[in-house]
Amino acid sequence: MSPSPHGTEAEMDMSGMDMGTTSTASTSMSMSMMSMTFFTSSSTPLYSTMWTPNSPGAYAGTCIFLVLLAVIFRSLLAVKAWKERAWLDAEFNRRYVTVAGKLPKSERISQDSDSKRMVLSENGVEEDVMVVKKRGMGVRPWRITTDPVRAVMDTVIVGVGYLLMLAIMTMNVGYFMSVLGGTFLGSLALGRYVANEH
């Protein structure tokens, strides 16, 4: 017995309806996810569906978390700037040994074309000094005590920065304002340390 052509058409209509419904649902979901407008909602997931505030208190707690995360981000930038200055000071204060066959540093400075002999006087005491034009240090040598710490700090800073970026990309106004508020507080407290880096 051959199958009825009406049954096949009915099956095609049903499968077409399922596909149409599925594609419409997925299109509307992707459109809502791609929406680039800010919205206010107290039940926007943060980082995963497990972290979806289900009450005004939970939403406020999530916003406070984002404020603290932004303050931590600014603190990490300040600590990095402080460590970079400390490493640079240590580099300048490092003791160098004289290598056989090379002139001592004082003689090399006196023969340098950028150095000038001058007289420094203070309170009637005169002293001959050599003034050397500062040049760029170039690339500092790789150090086991400095470079791994710098790499870890950079990685943590980038990780926290991406977490903040993902919170803003939810387009939730409360999350956005929380990140801005935390950045303001962190900059207010520690911005002067980052500004002195340059």
From TrEMBL:
Positions of region (Disordered): 1-21
Primary location class: membrane
Transmembrane domains' residue ranges: 59-77, 151-169
Domain of life assignment: Eukaryota
Subcellular location field: Membrane
Keywords per UniProt: Copper, Copper transport, Ion transport, Membrane, Transmembrane, Transmembrane helix, Transport
InterPro entries: Cop_transporter (IPR007274)
Pfam families, per the entry: Ctr
Topology versus the membrane: Multi-pass membrane protein
GO MF: copper ion transmembrane transporter activity
One Gene Ontology cellular component: plasma membrane
UniProt family annotation: Belongs to the copper transporter (Ctr) (TC 1.A.56) family. SLC31A subfamily.
Name the UniProt record assigns to this protein: Copper transport protein
Taxonomic lineage: Eukaryota, Fungi, Dikarya, Ascomycota, Pezizomycotina
